[in-house]
């Protein structure tokens, strides 16, 4: 999916139909990470899976998607997340993937403000930071990625209207379909 090196992942399937790919982030320290696809809805007969990502809790199998490890290997970790998408669609070709950052909900702004380290005044600088990373990658590789995938974007969380993805818009969420 991209030419940045990625970590080797281990696929875990659970009885709850969520799919997890585990890997070890080897930056400043060793951290077990998980990429998680969880079924959240159906649209036009396709199951939509939410793409989640974060530090993995080995005790309960959950992920912490709001943590910032700052482990020094962000590009390789992001590449690892992206590399699971073709694998996911290989096993779930009639599914769709929903991508939205854990920092894209309005409640995030309130929580962030209480612990703000960036001295934000009116606009939270951390708001939508994660989805911006996905959009940046998608915008830079849109022509190539559009050969295999269809993208819809959600411009406003409150209105909840999906439209054809274009690089000019700012989206709070992206819906990805594999072309047949």
Task: Write structural notes for this entry.
It is a single chain. It contains 4 helices and 9 strands. It has about 180 residues and is of the alpha+beta class.
> For the CA atoms, what is the radius of gyration?
16 Å
Categorize the overall geometry: globular
- Helix-strand sequence: EEEEEHEHHHEEE
Q: What composes the largest sheet?
A: 9 strands, mixed
If helices are DSSP runs of H or I spanning 4 or more residues, what is the number of helices?
Answer: 4
Percent helix:
10-25%
Low-confidence stretches: none
Number of strands: 9
Pairing-aware structural class of the strands and helices? Answer: alpha+beta
Kindly report the average pLDDT value: 86
Beta-strand residue fraction: 25-35%
C-alpha end-to-end distance: 17 Å
